[in-house]
Design a protein that fits this description.
The protein is 67% helix and 0% strand. The protein is mainly alpha-helical.
Length: 225
Amino acid sequence: MSEWWTYSLTNFLLFSPRTYYRLFELTNADVWPLQLVTLALGVAIAFLMVRARARSGRAVAAILAALWLLVAWAFLLERYDTINWAARYFAIAFVLQAALLVWSGIIRDHLVFSARDTAAKTGLALLFYALAIHPLIAPLTGRPITQAEIFGLAPDPTAIGAIGILLAAERPSLHLLAVPFLWCLLSGLTLWTMESPEAPIGPLLGALGVALGLRKSLASRRKPR
């Protein structure tokens, strides 16, 4: 029997990279053309953030909560759970995130988009990345475009986009950033174990968003009301 220190993280991986990426291909094939809808909703969120109105925050929270529920069902439960027993617990975390968005963004109306500071611009940039750039990772790394990870259907771009959206709020809610950031870290660890070249992207972008969100939240609390 080998000693425990001779093992690496790859020894504990429950699936191969090929099997993992195949899940995105199967999901995209099963839900087509829902990708067009989720991307359109992402663009609508960006429009609501830029053209902020009285109920923009509630509308953004409602759309984003629905997308987190969609990822929990369409990918985590329907696909990822077939190769990873922990996926059902990830799905619960995604449902929790949707519930927090409903509570903070719709019921309490805490998502206000009026700031035009560096953090808000960075947030929009993160959302743009999630919508337009992240899906291109598949072909850029030699995988077929059918395995593209789409915002609102795949967890990574959804988490990164959500961090960007929350960062752009006038006062970022730190409790809303927790689940997206933790997913970025967990996904990054999984991709690193699979030796995927995109492994650092999620954790780095997530850390950037959370750091700016924390600074912005602390600064807003110091301002006199």
